[in-house]
């Protein structure tokens, strides 16, 4: 669960973690549209975010900003709501954004923004391939994206958004390939990745809170739960309704204070239940997680009650049933263990 969410959050951070104050795009109207649109995304107001990025695309069709951000709204909303993504529309926007970006880079290879545009476009194309199960192409595109982020640092070592991307990549690459540590060519860069991320968190001044989410999941993976909690709680003071931060905070508390984790997970369920026509995808996942936490602290009656609630859900879409098929099996297994 941690790896799945961290991979997803990593890609969202690479886009939403917009530029430090000194690295703003040299156009005030573009910055204003980005500022407002990103704020809407953070507050999970996706329709208003899309309206701002559509305006950006229409006013500045020569730049890939609009198409990239329209794609990320669709990706973020689908991830947040637990819905099936519109792969065709997202792929169209990203393909066109990449074409624009590569043309800009070819015409002006010394402009850092053109490298950044290509990095973002390739990064999100990679993520879309992950969502569609095309892992080989995703890895190839993802590595290419990382190389373009590295190019940004070669052009400007203070381009801290590249530190976010590269730090996240270095950590997870090292952590998930650590079984190769005995090989002479393997270089564990996990600590260097954390250093990059902490540097970005300290130095960025516009959207440093979004760089933080990557660090939170890194510290959870590293079992440094108190540091993860510290960062998450600080960011939630700025964006108290953001479900991404709440989920990360609850996960960090699982190994520190399960009762607090349960309370935060319950707040997330309440938030999801307020979404009109929600499909119950995350509600079911969260109830299962809470049931596991109850079982862990010996409150079996509450755990069993939640298992029963999960298994009594009716009228779920085929997509949700398919995505949650393995979870339903695990819920039944937990239910049986609690009864026996």
Features:
mainly alpha, 340 residues, single chain, globular, Serine Threonine Protein Phosphatase 5, Tetratricopeptide repeat
Summarize the helices and strands and which ones pair or pack.
Blueprint: H1 2-16, H2 28-42, H3 46-59, H4 65-81, H5 87-107, H6 112-131, H7 135-155, H8 160-176, H9 190-203, H10 208-221, H11 225-238, H12 243-253, H13 258-273, H14 281-296, H15 300-311, H16 318-323, H17 325-339
Descriptive overview:
The structure is a single chain. The protein is an all-alpha fold. It has helices at residues 2-16, 28-42, 46-59, 65-81, 87-107, 112-131, 135-155, 160-176, 190-203, 208-221, 225-238, 243-253, 258-273, 281-296, 300-311, 318-323, 325-339. The chain has a domain at 21-143: Tetratricopeptide repeat domain (Serine Threonine Protein Phosphatase 5, Tetratricopeptide repeat). It has 17 helices and no strands. Residues 18-22 and 179-186 have low confidence and may be disordered.
């Amino acid at each position: 669960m941690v790896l799945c969410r961290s991979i997803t959050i990593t890609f969202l951070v690479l886009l939403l973690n917009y530029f430090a104050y000194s690295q703003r795009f040299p156009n005030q109207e573009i910055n204003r549209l980005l500022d407002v649109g990103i704020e809407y995304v953070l507050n999970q107001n996706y329709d208003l975010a899309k309206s701002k990025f559509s305006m950006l695309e229409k006013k500045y069709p020569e730049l890939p900003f609009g198409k990239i951000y329209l794609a990320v709204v669709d990706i973020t909303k689908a991830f947040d709501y637990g819905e099936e993504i519109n792969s065709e529309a997202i792929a169209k926007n990203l393909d066109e954004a990449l074409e624009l970006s590569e043309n800009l880079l070819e015409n002006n290879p010394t402009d850092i923004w053109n490298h950044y545009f290509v990095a973002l476009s390739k990064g999100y194309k990679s993520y879309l391939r992950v969502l569609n199960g095309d892992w080989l192409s995703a890895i190839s595109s993802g590595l290419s994206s990382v190389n373009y982020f590295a190019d940004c640092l070669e052009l400007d070592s203070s381009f801290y958004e590249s530190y976010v991307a590269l730090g996240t990549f270095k950590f997870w690459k090292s952590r998930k390939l650590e079984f190769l540590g005995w090989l002479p060519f393997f270089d564990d860069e996990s600590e260097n990745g954390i250093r990059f991320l902490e540097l970005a968190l300290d130095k960025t001044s516009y959207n440093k809170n979004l760089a933080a989410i990557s660090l939170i999941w890194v510290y959870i993976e590293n079992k440094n739960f108190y540091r993860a909690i510290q960062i998450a709680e600080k960011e939630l003071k700025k964006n108290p309704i953001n479900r991404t931060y709440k989920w990360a905070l609850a996960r960090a508390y699982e190994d520190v204070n399960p009762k607090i984790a349960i309370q935060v997970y319950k707040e997330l369920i309440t938030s999801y239940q307020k979404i009109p026509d929600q499909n119950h995808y995350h509600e079911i996942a969260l109830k299962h997680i809470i049931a596991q936490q109850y079982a862990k602290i010996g409150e079996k009656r509450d755990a069993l009650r939640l298992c029963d609630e999960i298994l009594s859900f009716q009228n779920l879409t085929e997509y949700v049933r398919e995505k949650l098929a393995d979870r339903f099996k695990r819920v039944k297994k937990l239910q049986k263990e609690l009864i026996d």
